[in-house]
Specification:
The complex is a heterotetramer, with two copies of chain A (about 140 residues) and two copies of chain B (about 400 residues). With about 140 residues, chain A is of the alpha+beta class. Chain A is built from four helices and three strands. Chain A has a three-stranded antiparallel sheet, covered by helices on one side. In chain A, helix 1 crosses helix 2 and helix 2 runs parallel beside helix 4. In chain B, the strands form four sheets. Chain B has a seven-stranded mixed sheet with strand order 2-8-7-6-5-3-4, with helices on both faces. In chain B, strands 11-12-15-14 form a four-stranded antiparallel sheet, with helices on one face. In chain B, strand 6, helix 7 and strand 7 form a beta-alpha-beta unit. With about 400 residues, chain B is α/β, with parallel strands linked by helices. Chain B is globular and about 70 Å long. In chain B, helix 3 runs parallel beside helix 4. Chain B is built from 13 helices and 15 strands. Chains in contact: A-B, A-C, B-C, B-D, C-D. The complex binds pyridoxal-5'-phosphate (PLP) (2 copies). One pyridoxal-5'-phosphate (PLP) sits at the interface of chains B and C.
């Protein structure tokens, strides 16, 4: 692949085309709406907790490939984590995308967003869903 | 022409040559302007109108000369020209300096839905501050002003009408002469946002009969941090000083301060002399070309781009089909692809465009545009048709990828 | 050092070499800053935080980097740094953005008699607007603040105290730590004018415990048209957006607008990116020297000048005799000669000084200074003792002529 | 003389050292006070008219050499002129100092201020007394 690959890795394109956990939960404990007005991106995130863990979560919304894929990846990474872990992982993700910090392997697929750091204008796109998650587990 | 602009030879890290089509956001600078700035700091720099030494005199002469160049460029006189940091500050200066003293409860301020945030939010905030009524004129589907609606919205209570001569979202050229006449017939003040029009076509403040006109240097080959507020002689006396401090005063006592005459009265603090002489140098470059030719060139590129992209599958073009109503801006979308992703693919082909809401959320919301965003290619004197060919190819690649 | 500054090789039309002693008005620029500006326009220029193409990214990275450089320079964090067009705009931003919302009838604003007009008139006008009380603290005969009087003037009704860390008229370094403590003990907000001090000595906003600090780039080797407002994290939330428009908004609807977070919230319109990166480049140059060394150098020149001119017939020197209380500014008069005429004779010898009221009418009136004006020589990193020798000779010539 | 001579011509230095018509009139028709705050210059001008002519005038004040000499020269030039002439001559003087226009010989000694044009910061000094005169004959 060419030089677009550090922004649009195959994994990202795959999530963009086939977003995971897209839609609405029948049953949820928290719902967060968030917008990134500078891009017009919107996300709605629903989370169901059980025993201090994220039992299930779904998102819907609209935005660019980066923001949609990042939301999809986020839901995959988060499902089943304890709230404590979710907080730590999302902090790691934000540090990676905003400040270029190398993350631990815990981030799994989410590591493909490491290249976004070099595109300051796309940082907001990649972080929206993760901020929404942080708000949901506050 | 491109050789006057060193930045246009930029090669991206991936080896692609840059095609700069983001001129509505900011323009590139010719060597003559860059060198004028360097030479100012190398040979001339001092504070202005304060220090009576050799460099101080040189700087003051250059600064006054720049004011005259700007005045001539828009057919105004020197004491109608206030240097600001940009269009946004200029408009705020009117809203605070004229608006706060002249708007009271129930008064109306009329703007167009197609205004840039900088010609929208200051008026809205003024209306909120003073309990006035903020009226936003609806548009036609092509982004032009619905003139019937406009006529209805201007009443005897209207105190201010604000309108861009050219919009930055779709590049629509508004009929400001007609709008000004309707405005003045109702006794209101007519404020023109020239941020896009002044760089792209001849400007005559007498002809458009604007009471105020604002524009920014950086959008017309000049450095950042300099802008202009033109205030018609008959109204400038009603403009209260807004920023206060050094240079704009006559006498400062504990109980009160008296202020200097216009334009000094409105230029508090050390002015941006570099910016002013850089702007004058840019104007000289543009006058060499001729402003009528600038517009003609922009339209030629626009027509070429339009004809190449019209009818292309998935491509939506915004704005009126009548090119007489347009300057060199082409806003578009590709169905199903977010404009940010379009911009990213174009960028990987060297093509620099803007994607997003272009500081014009109201028009995008009003026209219900997908993603509340568009991709925008905007042209200037140094662009040519081959740039458009690269753009069109890159659009095809975006379609393939997404 | 002088070779870094091309302008310092200027030869006047009469053949005299320039001796630039007007640094309190504005400083000259080193080649590194001039080239940083040229290179920005030759290789990097785009609008900031808006366009996601290659140049847009480069510019945004540079602009954010400049903010970090400025923050580190004064021991602040990035989201406490607001770029403005200069000290004057910074102070107006506080007066309107914080003052209008927090001052009401009967509240007191305390300033010093030695403030620059830019740190005097905005507060006076705020007091007039809000029917507050404007209190001006008297001075001692040497131009220092009368601290007893100051202590008496701060009361439980005081909402704002504004004070320069270094005055531009006599170069007095005020005890801002003590003034800040007294101010905070009464629950008032402490606003420091750093226009003269930030260029000339180390600055630590935590140490001086300023709530707001303002300074200008052009007085510290950077281009014109850029300034800084530091707003302490604990108070920035109370600062209302003052200029509105593009770039500082979150969502713009007809009925209302929501604003972005700090610092974007306070930077309406296209920012002066050139200015910001020019300022960062200037700071790098100064840090290479070390700010403590800058002050030491200024004082050395001051002491040399003072010792040469003290006791010279007809020459009156202003300001405290204790050099610990001074930076590199020497205000003086020659009995019976108007300072403008002094400046003219000095200029014919190549010596550039400022004559007049230095935007500081209140102190000159308070101290009842002849002609309400002084001659002022002000020194910076590139001046040396031989400059002072030329100055002293030129003063003798002025005495002979008038 | 050296390069200061276009600013401080001998005539100017002479008027600065020995200002003509300095002081107060016992009897006058108009009195004008004017300040040039940017320099701190002040002038007080008294004029006595007779038959549409300036019969006598005196000034007092404080300022730089240029402003004092210019006031002194002005009073010499103006004494005895008709109001019509005074208006025309002062216009000519202002045009000369502000815009560099070559004046007619009518201006006599006042022509030595022609060099001030090249010193924009001193224009206010040279014009103060002439503006005061214009105000007095308004
Ligand atoms: C102490 C002080 N405050 C404020 C200012 C105003 O700065 P500026 O003219 O750059 O806005 C100056 C400089 O003129 C100054 O010396
Ligand atoms: C139509 C219009 N108005 C106002 C502005 C604001 O100009 P600036 O950002 O230079 O203050 C712009 C540019 O962004 C514009 O295109």
């Amino acid at each position: 692949m060419d030089d677009l690959s550090d922004l649009y890795a195959e994994v990202i394109m795959d999530h963009q085309r086939h977003p995971r956990n897209f839609g609405k939960l029948e049953n949820f404990d928290r719902e967060v709406q968030m917008t990134n007005s500078s891009c017009g991106d919107q996300i709605s995130l629903q989370v169901k907790f059980e025993n201090e863990k994220i039992k299930d979560l779904k998102f819907s919304g609209m935005g660019c490939a980066i923001s949609m894929a990042s939301a999809s990846v986020m839901t995959e990474v988060m499902k089943g984590l304890s709230i404590e872990e979710a907080r730590r992982f999302s902090d790691e993700f934000l540090e990676m995308v905003k400040a270029g910090k190398i993350p631990s392997d815990d981030l799994k697929d989410a590591k493909v967003f490491g290249g976004v750091y070099k595109y300051p204008m796309r940082v907001k796109c990649a972080t929206l869903a993760w901020y929404a998650l942080q708000k949901a587990i506050e | 022409m491109k050789k006057d602009f060193p930045i246009l030879s930029t090669v991206l890290p991936n080896g692609k040559k840059i095609i700069y089509l983001d001129n509505a956001a900011t323009t590139q600078k010719p060597l003559s302007v860059i060198e004028r700035i360097s030479n100012f700091y190398k040979f001339q720099n001092a504070n202005v109108a304060r220090s009576s030494h050799y460099l101080g005199e040189q700087t003051t002469i250059a600064y006054n000369g720049a004011r005259k160049t700007v005045a001539d460029f828009i057919n105004a006189s020197e004491d109608e020209i206030i240097f600001t940091s940009g269009t946004t500050e200029s408009i705020n200066m009117i809203a605070y300096g004229w608006g706060d003293a002249n708007i009271s409860e129930g008064d109306e301020i009329v703007v167009m839905t197609s205004e840039h945030h900088s010609d929208f939010v200051p008026w809205q905030q003024l209306a909120i501050r003073k309990k006035g009524k903020f009226k936003v004129t609806p548009l036609n589907a092509d982004g032009t002003i619905n003139m019937n609606e406009f006529k209805k919205s201007v009443t005897s209570k209207t105190k201010i009408v604000a309108c861009a001569k050219m919009t930055n979202s779709f590049g629509v050229i508004n009929p400001v002469e007609e709008i000004g006449k309707i405005t003045h017939d109702k006794g209101a003040v007519f404020v023109v946002d020239g941020a896009q029009s002044v760089p792209s076509m001849p400007t005559d403040v007498k002809e458009m009969d604007a009471d105020f006109l604002s524009f920014s240097g950086h959008k017309m080959l000049a450095p950042m941090g300099i802008g202009v507020l033109y205030a018609k002689k008959s109204i400038i006396k009603e403009l209260e000083p807004f920023l206060t401090g050094g240079g704009m005063i006559d006498e400062v006592k504990t109980e009160f301060t008296t202020f200097a005459c216009a334009p000094d009265r409105y230029e508090a603090g050390t002015p941006n002399v570099e910016g002013a002489i850089g702007l004058a140098s840019a104007i000289e470059y543009l006058e060499e070309i001729g402003m009528a030719n600038v517009l003609e060139h922009e339209r030629e590129i626009l027509e070429y781009a339009y004809s190449k992209l019209a009818g292309v599958e998935r491509v939506i073009l915004y704005g009126p089909k009548n090119f007489e109503k347009r300057g060199g801006i082409l806003s578009f979308n590709i169905k199903g692809i977010h404009p940010h992703d379009v911009a990213a693919v174009l960028n990987s082909n060297g093509v620099a465009i803007r994607s997003g809401h272009h500081c014009a959320q109201p028009i995008l919301r009003f026209l219900n545009i997908d993603f509340m965003a568009t991709a925008r290619a905007s042209f200037y004197i140094y662009n040519d048709k081959s740039d458009i060919d690269v753009l069109a190819d890159a659009i095809e690649e975006a379609k393939r990828r997404f």
